[in-house]
Structures
1.
Amino acid sequence: MSIRLEGINKYFGQFQALKDISLDIPDGQLTGLLGPSGSGKTTLLRIIAGLESAEQGRILFHGEDVTDLHVRDRRVGFVFQHYALFRHMTVAQNIAFGLEVMPKAQRPGAAEIRKQVGELLDMVQLAHLASRYPAQLSGGQKQRIALARALAMKPEILLLDEPFGALDAKVRKDLRRWLRALHDELHFTSVFVTHDQEEALELSDSVVVMSAGKVEQVGGPQALYAQPESRFVFDFLGHVNVLDGQLAQQRMTQGDAWVQLPGMLECSGEAQLYLRPHEVRLQDCPAPHANLPLRIESISLIGAEVRLELAPCGWVAQEPWEVGISHVEFNRWQPQRGDRCYAVPDVGHLFDVQQARPRTLSWVND
Amino acid sequence: MSRVKSSLRIGDQPWVKWSLIGSALTLTLLLLVIPLILIFSQAFADGADSLWANLTDTYTLEAIALTLFVAAMTVPINLVFGVFLAWLVTRFEFPGRKVLITLIDIPFAVSPVVAGLLYLLLYGSNGWLGGWLLDQDIQLMFAWPGIVMVTVFVTCPFVARELIPLMQQQGREEEEAGVVLGASGWQLFRKVTLPNIQWALLYGVVLTNARAVGEFGAVSVVSGNIRGETNTLPLHVELLYQDYNVAGAFTSASLLAGIALLTLLVKSFVEWRQERQRAPVSDQTDSL
């Protein structure tokens, strides 16, 4: 079931939580609402569910206006960040709740309810916990029970509010993979809220990046990462190294640092060059087209590549630079903390005062 | 339920601990235990026959009946009112919400005598509403409705005060989960809200009942002390005492003390249940 939002405005007192949000969420996809805390993503999710009402705007499910439909009649599945399991009911009773409260005419018989609960428990692989109480479960188990409870109603729309936010890293990864598999199997329309970029990019078919109550950009994970349309999206999706400087005659300068830009650019004045950690190489002498002296501040060995944190020498950056190098290269080079090195950009993204969107520059094929 | 550690922290003096424990026990004995024992021993002073005679005295029986009647009226009223109020201030945001939470405590802050006088001023035959009510042939003051009214006033914070912190702590997520799953308002209350607050609610009811039975100040102002008609048990104790019927006074007093002890028993049981409900059962052997 597709979801369509038209011109949603939401205020909390004087504060405008959502500013004119219009959004199309296609049928059968897993969509991530990504943004920092306070960006309005949870509010938007609660408005879709009907737990919160918007001052202006319309919500359509499958082309049908549900703006004024009560939450209990919208028949969406909702998974809460802190699970919200009924603490005085067993796991089986929790899952059965949605079926038990149906009007008499539609409610399945007791045997049928028991059968469905059994199937749902099998689906979340927790059949052995049917008679436990929520307090006796681990966080990951609770979240899976919460999901089974939401799915008992066979919703066509599943909404998840920071579903893995309260779990530790290992469980989080497992559950993430499991949710993706479940979604691919059952094909409901899912919307989930997260502040974790990695989670959003890994899990979603499409990501909605939000900031300060507005939609910044919508797109598939690859498209978002490859072509961020604003500084915010750039900053938010992973680490980025920024050179803030003056642009004049194809050259960006700040203190001792400078970069010769490729191609023909007519702009000048203040500009920022954004460089992703994997778009920069490190070497022990400056390159012909760039002089970016850095000092190694810390070395992180865990992961697929070695991550170096670098402080600028003779120029300034608001945040330290981060560059990843392969373990092979690390072992050959053997850098130490405090060593001096030079960053060489291969690809960069230039923001100048005239344009909101960045220009992608490449030094490689020059 | 923390166990007292037998070992002292380095630098702590044993005599500090023992003198604190000693003085606390002495005070408890002097202030609480001895008076309680005295009440019962005085009641039995003239023997069991006299106790029985005092208990079955017509006026005493009528005082008991009125007291139980007032409690039976007050408790349901404040049960509903308390749940309603707690629900209101914990589930909705509205202007004046904070003020309302403060206002709930007025009956605690105000002396019961003042409350009684206020009701007398308002509903008495010379009062603002009382004159009109008298014309309608409705008498509230110096009759049981007045006693119920002031008792309701004095005891109205107990249930709400118990529920508000608990409901604030539990939040509204479970109710939201319930409503998303299609539950109606009544189903939500019965299946989600009530089971979560039942022990706190019972605790509030027990306290309300104890206070309703024992209330003296406010009731004495509006009752008029008509023996056999508007005399509750606490007022009866005072009347008997002023009549120099000490044994009779202590018999009624022991009855009140008995109710108090029973209340404590129920209260401890409810507290124990609440504790058990809140404590997460430490049985998380299964990992994810």
2.
Amino acid sequence: MLDVKTDTGAARTDGSPAEAPPLVVEGLSHAFGERQALRNVSFQLNRGDRTMLLGLNGAGKTTLFSLITRLYNHRGGSIRIFGWEIKHKPSEALARLGVVFQLATLDLELSVAQNLYYHAALHGLPRREAASRMRREIERVGLTERMRERARTLSGGQRRRVEIARALIHQPRLLLLDEPTVGLDVASRQFLLDHVRMLAREEGLAVLWATHLIDEVDADARVIVLHQGRILAEGPVPEVIRGANASSMREAFDNLTGERDA
Amino acid sequence: MRPVHYYRCLRGIVWREALRFLNQRGRFLAALVRPLVWLLIFATGFRFVLGVSIIPPYQTYIPYQVYIAPGLIGMILMFQGMQSSLSMVWDRETGSMRTLLVSPLPRWYLLTSKLIAAVIVSVLQAYVFLAIGYFWGIHPPHMGYLTVLPALILAGLMLSSLGLFLSSVIRQLENFAGVMNFVIFPMFFASSALYPLWTVRQANERLYYICKANPFTDAVELIRFALYGKFNPLAFAVVGGSLVVFMTLAIVGYDPGRGLITRRGGAE
């Protein structure tokens, strides 16, 4: 699903954006005081794109996610989700966005079902519809029998699976995951990677997956290499590797970031 | 987002608060034990130490426990308000505040819903306290149980919005322990909760003015008057005004464009 990049979203305003791309980031810059966290970052996600945002800790991934999820507003540039500028039309933009945060965000005192229902309520879903979507999503991550149990009784990997199910309950077409595999065992990590790959390929979900683990970047994905707040390379993984005169993603990453440091 | 979405969202937030509350019965008991200890032990011990003269809204001499009952209700509301803000600081650290803030309804609405949920719980606690107090000689007029309700809600909103504002400014839980000491106790003691302000005035004029300026005093007086079917316009104005101020500060604190989160940056 390495589709041709189009510019349909670039000139779009805050109108009715039925055909707009899931995510367009343009000229995004952000600073905390003196520290420049992001410099002129631009990229686009199309339908079905699974894009790995690869960068070391401190590269600016969390800042980028905080801006896209509107924890705070960006100052320079623009972020459009299906054509809706997040700063001006936050409700429209956020309603189309699913997020799995780096931190665990389940309420451990509540059951799995209660956690999911709470999320559905925040998105204004009616109870009945919420219940059927909850069943479907939780079944897909294989935790149907755990629905009534407290989140506290789940393992780390299971909690993450619940968080993915939760992020999809309001049927977003764009899914953001911020280092979702941190602290997980190999099997759980593989499950998440496979599940998200399936979502992108079979359902056309656009996915932005932040990671500092080069192993997670597979050949079918797109990759954005973020380093010191700048995008060093972007595109399908094989192209990025070729562009960096490398034979593997790891080598490409070293070449790209090494050049920059030198 | 249509009005029905707003309604469902509020219902969800209140429902979650209620569930958390039911799951933490220890918290409910602890919140009740505190004022009951004051009522059953402290008030009994001080019964003959403090002479309480006839002051409005009372029409006769009253035993000390009757005097401090509204103050202890204020204490319940304040602790509950601070506790819900404590849970917000905690929420923010664990990230469940992030899930709230990334949902599509406007942020002021989400915060207000959270506040309303917290107040519902604390009003419930106040009534349980009044029910137990009935067996300890606290007998307001029957209508008082009804007329006190709006006062409880308003005072609860004011104290919870103060907590909400503090939660937007305070980053670490460690600091919150300090806030308990530096906010709750001074506000409680420098108020009319435990002693009529005229006794304070006799002892220390400056402290008297501090107590007068403390919005918690007005919260207590609003409740005290309402419990006896009377309306205290000054207390109402101060409590209402403080609510507006604290709520505005809290919304600014959580505002993505201006707020303190912005200046500090993310968790990176």
